[in-house]
Specification:
Strand order of the largest sheet: 1-2-3-4-5-6-7-8
Order of helices and strands: HEHEHHEHEHEHEHEHEHH
Helix content: 40-55%
Number of helices: 11
Strand content: 5-15%
Shape: globular
Structural class: alpha/beta
Low-confidence stretches: 281-290
Largest sheet: 8 strands, parallel, barrel
Distance between the termini: 8 Å
Number of strands: 8
Length: 290
Amino acid sequence: MNHPNRLRKAVLDDGTTPLIGVFDMFSASIAARYHDGLFVSGFGFAASHYGLPDIGFIAWPDLVAFVQRLRLAFPRQHLLVDIDDGYVDEETACHVVQHLEAIGASGVILEDQKRPRRCGHVDGKQVLPLDEYLNKLEMVLESRQDLLVVARTDATEEAEILRRAKALAATDADVILVDGVRSVDWIRKVRAVIGDKPLLFNQIAGGKSPRLSLSELNELGVHVAIYSTPCLFAAQTAIDQALAELRKADGRLPEHTPDSVGVAECLALLERNISRHHREAELPAIAGID
């Protein structure tokens, strides 16, 4: 079974499938120890690769190159990729989708925002006319082979959210995402208008959506949960604390203990990513991966 169809199967299986947002190869190396699904977050990639906010700076060749490195290091993980608005025009969106499918991505998320774009959980978002987005989405769907496609709306007005969700569900998109959904009640409303189409929920620390467990999301009829920034925010917190403590200690490193990371522990993590080590017999069994 190829990468897109393995993700498609996971989405349709019982329960809510979690995908963990990663921002670089190192964060992915840690996330892959705990989860079989990785999400290439636009927020995290813009922060890591450019040191900039997620407002439209990402160049598609940079993203494609990152996903290629991910797939080589993590041959069995699901890789769902945020491609924003497809990098403005329809032809570029199709080109990027075909590149990503060729290098082994499992799926993509295509949004209906217009430029200048914003993170889905901040104010000031603007959306394309629905017909314009649907045309782009249809072209992307026609250009893929098996790639899973998530259709995302960033509409904020209540009537427009439901109008767009219903229209997106009527396409051949595999999954629907309403980003920045503000309450459990609104998850239920979206669930009701999209019929039996799979639903994705995005939660981000400090964002607009409620914090919900996988069992709670499953009860609400959510098939996929993406966690955009747990690695990025944890890294910012830990690095800030470590450097503050180093400064306080007059530059003396803390004692290396069995519970801390040193040279050996870091190398052990990274050596798992060397592609020649990925013999089928050596790969650990991961729940949900065939």
